[in-house]
Amino acid sequence: NAGVTQTPKFQVLKTGQSMTLQCAQDMNHNSMYWYRQDPGMGLRLIYYSASEGTTDKGEVPNGYNVSRLNKREFSLRLESAAPSQTSVYFCASIDTSGVRFGPGTRLTVT
Amino acid sequence: ELKVEQNPLFLSMQEGKNYTIYCNYSTTSDRLYWYRQDPGKSLESLFVLLSNGAVKQEGRLMASLDTKARLSTLHITAAVHDLSATYFCAVETNNDMRFGAGTRLTVKP
User: Is A50 on the interface with B (CB under 8 A)?
Assistant: First the structure.
């Protein structure tokens, strides 16, 4: 039981490049989330998925897209990275049994 | 839109003292969460509060929920250095979970 896994752990992109952050959970949770955390700040919700096949925008969705590929996986895509997207990205999954966060992906856009 | 406010944002306290962190939110909620985050680490779930009057305790931490006042508190009893961390509350409504800005707690010997 690995909980929530995220790949990669670290990434450096140039402005305009694209990439996909991967998240997977093995707890059979329905709801999954993507957050970003900027230095010294709280977490801001980018997108969430209440169940397989559904996604909804959060507070800061601009510049991102998501895919809920199946119940286990929820990916976050940056189509054209910008320096303002430099942040730590956390994936989380929730069910009535509890909440688990992934270890985070530290992304730097130069 | 759901807003979550925490205070204080910074808290410096001495070992052995008691203190309370407050979390206010703007709309009705399904669940309220408290998390701990150590520097450079992910978030660790501390408590999930579901209903009005709910109280949960783990060690020196106790969380409570007043849904009528839209207020949750995290009370720290006889603080120790190991409790130094950032504490976040988060409110979930219709699967949308929003966070407060966090309280950075430093416990000094």
Answer: yes
Question: CB distance A42–B100 less than 8 Å?
Answer: yes
B52-65 per-position pLDDT tens digit = 889 999 999 999 99
**Residues B41-52: pLDDT tens digits?**
999 999 999 988
Q: Enumerate the residues of chain B whose CB falls inside 8 A of the CB of residue A42.
A: 88, 99-102
What are the b/e assignments for A77-102, b being 16+ CB within 10 Å? ebeebeeebbbbbbbbbbeeeebbbb
